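Pinned message: reference record for F-box domain-containing protein
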Amino acid sequence: METNLTNNYSKLETFSDEVFFEIFDRLSPSDLYKTFYGLNIRLNTILNDSRMRFRDNLSSLTPKQFHSYVKNILPQIIDRLISFKFGTYDTDEYQQVSLFLHKYSIDLSLFKHLRTLVIIKMTIGDVQIVQSALIHLIHLVNIRFSVDSNDVDTTSFVHIGNDLLAGPKLKRVKMDMCARTTFENVTKSSNIEQLSIAWCEMQELTHLLQYSPYLSTLKATICGLNYADTWIQTIRGSLNQKCSLRLNSLKLVIESIRFDYLLLLLHELKQLRALWLLLNHYEYLDAEKWENLFQTSLLQLDQLDLTIALTKPFLSVNTAGQLIMLSTPHIACAKFNTKFWYERGWRAKLDEYDHCVRLTVSNNTVPI
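Predicted structure (tokens):
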């Protein structure tokens, strides 16, 4: 038995460093150091080699495991991590992000080779700390952040600036902040290609679009529009000049936005090929306005998924002091199933439930 072990070690030692890099790339840093570190000088040298790169996810660690990792593993690999995820989904267990950034005071700017960074459930106050560090992470390609909803109220704001978005290699960004996200501090163009935001106001989104010339895919929840008159003057004819023609896939959840304002935005995005919308007001049932949009501006659109969800009972002409419903969902559904829509391969259907009705117009393609 001893002879066999000796032979196995001898064969293992003949592998090149690159083979070890390939094998170790599939294992977590904790497992690697616990299993291989200290076995022999060769393995120690490989694990500490500057060419060795690591990926790690701390979100499932217990508090004890997390403490051990921060003290014993992270210092050895911090400048060689290329993908890093931390923060816990269950905030009742322990506040991993708070421990990481405050108790242990880990400086994110030391993750100098990081390409992917995911932070789960930080506080609004932590956002600024993270943004300040990102300016030093010049290799970042993907970032995904979420804010703990328990840290948010109706007056909460998350302010995003150039430090977060202007990374030279940054391509994909997802921000689930649970609070209004503002972009008025963004003044530099980014290289971002895919962006997901929940949530912001209309004027903040259009401001950001002017500094996103390479954006091809956008997903956002939009609620509200302040200073509508100023916004209208700004957007007409100017957004298309500043916003890249590469934006071809748009997915929006719209709340408290007038139909005419949404149309103004969409009229500027003539290059769209795929459009997904979730709307919640009866005025969006106007099939003629949609037809005009598709005939005059969105001429390249081929994928459509339009959902209008309304709560019962509906408004009527007899409701004193209320706006008049111009079309019931049943009438609207018929108008969305005319020749114009059929020729484009788009079909409308109506689903009724106890408390709501949902009108969907789509070409039944793969969801955007």
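Pinned by admin. Summary line: The mean pLDDT is 88.
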